Each structure stands twice: as structure tokens, then as C-alpha cells.
Amino acid sequence: MLSQLKAGWRLLRRLSGDDAYERYLRHYAKCHQSDCASECHTPLSKKEFYKQWQDEKWNGVKRCC
Amino acid sequence: MNTQLNKIIWLIVSILGATAVGGIAINRGEDINALWFVTAALCIYAIAYRFYAAWIAANVLVIDTTRATPAERLDNGKDFVPTNRWILFGHHFAAIAGPGPLVGPTLAAQFGYLPGTLWILFGAVLGGCVQDMVTLFLSTRRDAKSLGQMARDELGQLGGTAALIGTFFIMIILIAVLGLVVVNAMKHSPWATSTVAATIPIAMIVGVYMRFIRPGQVLEASAIGVILLLLSVLAGGWIDNNATLRILFDHEGLTLAWWVMAYGFAAAILPVWLLLAPRDYLSTYIKVGTITLLALAIIMLQPEVKMPALTQFIDGTGPIFGGKLFPFVFITIACGAISGFHALIASGTTPKLLINERDIRMIGYGAMLLESFVALMAMIAATVLDPGVFFAINSPAGVVGALEIDAVAKISSWGFPVSVEQMQLLANQMGEASLFARTGGAPSLAVGMASIFGSAFGEKLLALWYHFAIMFEAIFILTTLDAGTRVGRFMLQDMLGNIWPRMGETSWTPSVIFTSALVVSGWGYFLYIGVIDPNGGVNILWPLFGIANQMLAAIALSVATGILIKSDKLKYAWVTGLPLLWLIIITSSAAWEKIASTDVRVGFFAGANDLVAKLASGSMSPEKASVAPQLIFNLQLDAWLTVFFVALLWLIVFDMLRVCGRYLAGKPVPPLSESPHRPSRWVEDWVRD
Questions:
Q1: Is the residue at B97 inside a domain?
Q2: pLDDT of the residue at A34
């Protein structure tokens, strides 16, 4: 029961983008550590990341009729 | 044993589906339970998804589950992100389902429940879902390129340009007609107007919260927003009862139209985080929540459908919009059956998130099935109303008369009895001053939803449910309006940038203001004309939107058919070719009717000439005569716009046929732009994040 609730909560967070920053950090840890030649910078702060993420999300046709 | 059981189950589903469709189709003169519609839909969807969609995926598209998708290859943690298929299904569905599938079926219910229902069911499984799925597949195989880009690569410059221009014009017409729907829902309704107005500051509060107070805490902010929205519905009722406050929100349609335009302009130049993004969150939650609630209510309540299967208006004399059953039912219901706009989401946006090609069927085909189901629920909500009430709400004053007594006499004379007292009682229950001639579909949908919700969850709250339904429609209509104006602005900046590079800079303030103003005046013009038109405007704008949207679908299907033939799959080209052929037939014949018909309510030129003659003979009332010149100009403009759309359609189709003909004759054509096969790293250890 508890695990189902937790799974539901994770789904909701994922759907809404609530966990976007955590996912970004995981992505960063996975992809930017080993191969640091091209882009070597510390990960963005949550505020910075969220800004970019939101602006990116709304660039282009994102909603329909 | 298992396969035996499987066969038996599918046999039962088929028999049940066939019985339900048959029951809906042959029923005459008796009320029929809405559960039949739901059953028919679910069985048809299940069969189509299990067999047709699976067959297309396996044999026509030849899905390759070992192939790395753009999300895997180009993963950057931002826009290319491998995403769990259920999450992606949610995103994709939220993006494709807007107000279209709610408005179209409501208007098309004037033909009776049968034509619209059949088109929603079969149009979706054979046309709309196929278009979405194939486009998603093609874009996935091409690094998530947009439809316009694919058209340019695969057919040539012409196809790409036509797709771009087509998209721009659809946007303009779409926003105008949706703006009109909102204006008509708010007209002289302080409750609706104040609730809709409150959504703007609420969105801003949520935006500031997400950006500055607790950055990135999307769920917290959304929860606050949703609670405030529900409170705003309650507060609207209080304002409506307050003599001083209600005057502030009691306005003519034209005043509201100016406000909507000002709002659209502001939304296009304000930063996205302040208004657009938070509003979108709220509208998505409200949309998904309300649609789920409506489905539950219909299943719990099992309302009787009171509209006949077919009405006499299939002959083209319908009060809501003029035009015969063929082709106008197919134009009126675009979203929910087949919608070209989806191709813009299915290319570009969704493929960037797709983990594996095996999810294409579920997301492309499946999400459109769900949208079709939303359209079916709108059809049910419209047809459970007494037909007399339905026509009284949706018929413009220009057709049935401005006086209530005339309107009920006329509607009753059609065989749909209704009385002034009945309408007044209904209006009182819904907390509105009057429900006569509230065109546009939103008020009638809201009355339908309120009566369904009211019987399922409590009769006393009808007025609250009604205004909740209005808020629900308005909030995502305004989201489409914001987002559409903004996209229109970007497209225009892109086009003007070719002439004057400075204009192409999306953040150069003079360019932002100039292009936003241009886009807003584009749709604002049609909105203005729609509001001053005594026939309600929707009857002109909605068919125009339908034609434009079907034209975009034809572009997407042309690209798909061209690629199938170029990939040596001529024998399967009918999968997209037949829906394309059908779209060409309906779009061209609807355009022909709109241009050449001598019926003044159908033909644009005929309508214009009729007004010219009436104006010259002086038989018009002074107030009608004062707006007549503008209406005449607009009708002529609409006629030329229709010519333009249909010319664009034929241009693309011929371009596709030319490319295919050259390919089949062994002559050089633009090569397939599919990106090379790279094996997925995830096939072995299959992790869905």
C-alpha cells in the first residue's frame, strides 16, 4: 500500500516536472563527469536550471486545439 | 489454451462493439442510454488498437525496438530526455487535447447524435490516430524534426513552405474562434467573467511562486493555484449577488472582445514564467481532472440521450451553422476525429522524449483514442439536453429571433418543444440571467456537464457546476490563445527575419511588440467581426477553422504517404493514402460549398451579395445596416481565404504525387532523410527510468 502510494507520488512528480532538477543532477552526474573535455562547468543551481528548463519548454508549438 | 481464451475474449469484444454500434445506428424515436455510446467506443478503440494499430506498427512502419531513439542518442537532460512511456503519454495527451474536441461535437449535434458519433469513432481509428502515430514515427526516425522540416526534406521547398504558412493561418483562425467562444460564454455573465478574470492573477501568483519564492516546486505551486481557482468559482457567485460589484463584470460582447485582445497581446510579450507556463499547469490539472470526473459521472449516471439520431437539419438548414450533413459534419468535428494540428506535437516535441520505438503505438495511436473519447463525451453532454433547450442555447438571435417568445415559437415549430419558463428556470438554476442564443458551444456544454455532475454529485450545486465548467473551458481556451499568439509571433519573427535580420531576433523589444501586435490584430479582426455579426460569428469561423485544420492534416498525411512510397512500401500506402483521399474530398467539397453555394447561410459570396442587395434596397434595420459593410468585406475575405487554403492543399498533394511519380519512374527525388540505424544501449538491460 505504502509503496503504491510512493509510486503514485513519484509518477505525479515526474508528470508535473516537480523532479526535473533532481533528474538533471542525475543526468549531470552520469554524463558530465567522465567526459569533461567539451563542457566543463559545475551543475546549474536549482533556480538557474529551472529558468532555462521553463524557457526551453515554451519555445515552439507546445499546445494544440 | 491461452490463445483460445484470447480469441474468445476478442470475439466477445467484437460482438459487443458491433451490437452497440448497431444499437446506436438503428435506434429511432426512443431515448437511448449514453452507456451504449461508451460501450461502442471502448470496443472499437480496443479492437483498433489491438489489431489495426499493431498491424501498422509491425508491417507498415516496421518498428525496430533495437534502434536508439533521438532521446537516447541526443540526451542532453533538457529537451531530449528519455521519458517513461506513461509519463510521455500524459504529456502528449495534455498537449494535443485542447478545447477543439469539446466545441466541435457540440455544434455538430444539430444533425442529431448519429453522424457526429460515427465520425468521431471511425474518423479517429482510421484517420486521426493513424496520422498521429505515423507522424510520430517519421519524426522519431529523423532526429525529432518538425513537420515543416520533414516536408521540406522529403518533398521539397514547396511542401515545407506550405506547411509553415498553413500552420500560421490555422493559428490565427483558431485563436479568433476560441476567443469568440470565451467572449460568448462571458457576455452579460458577471459570474463567468469574474471567474475567468480571476484566473489571470492566480496564474501570476503561481508563476511568481514557482520562479522566486520556491523555485522549481511545481506541485506545491500548482496545488495553491488549483485551490485558488476553485475559490474563484465560489467568489464569482458572491460577486454575482453583490449589486455594486456585479456591474464591474457585466459587459457587452464587444467590450469583452477588446479585453481578450489586450490580454492576448500582454500574454505574448510578458515572460513565459509569469503567465503562460503557470496557466498551462493549472489548465492541465483542471482539464485532466474534469474529463476524468465527466467520464465517471457518465458511467455512474448513465444518462439518456434525448436528441434524435438524425434531425431534419441534415438538409443544410440547421440553425447553428448552415450546410448539409456532407461535408459539414466532417469539417465541424476536426479535433476528436482527425486534427492536423496534432502533427505539430507528434513531430518535434514528443519524439525528443521517446525511449523506444515500441512506445509509438501507445503514445501516437493511444493518446488520440483518448482525445476521441473526450469528443464523444462532449457529444453525450450536448445530446442529453432536451433538444429544444439545446437549440435555444445554441441558435443565434439572427436565425431564431431576438425576442425570447419568437425563439421558443420557432424552435418548437421544428418539433423540439421548449418554453420561455423552462429556459428561465434553467437559467436561474445555472445562475445566469438568460441562456437564449448563447452561441459558441461553451454554455451548452456547461449546462450539459452541470446537469450530469448535478445529478451525479448533488443537484443543489448546479450553478456552481455550471460556472466550474465555464472556468474549465475558459482556462484552457485562454492557454491556447496565449500559446498560439506567442507561437504566431515566433513564426512571424522568423519569416520577417529573412527580409530584415533584426526582426528575427526573438528578444529585440521593437520586433517583439511589432510582431505581437500584428498577430493579435490578425485574430482580433476575426474576433471583432464574429462579435458584431448578428448570426453569432461561430457559424462562419468554425467551418473556416475546420477546413484549415483538415488541410494541415492533409499536409501531414501527404508527407507520410510520400515517404511510404519512397521507402518502397507502395502496397501499404493506402494506410495514409485513404484518409488523405477522404480529407481531400471533404475539404475540397466543403470549400466549394463555402465559395460557390447560392445558399446565403453557406456560401460566403452568396452571403455577401445578399447583404449588398438588402443594403441597397434599404430593407435593413439601421443597426444592422451600420455593420453590414464590414460584414460584406469579411465574407469576401473569408471566401478568398478558403480559396487560398484549398489551393495550398492541392499544391501539396500534387507536389507529393509528383515526387512519388518520379520515384516510381526511377527518376531522382530528394533522398530519404532517415537518420542511420544505431543500436540502442538499453535493449539488454531494459530499464524504464
A1: yes
A2: 55
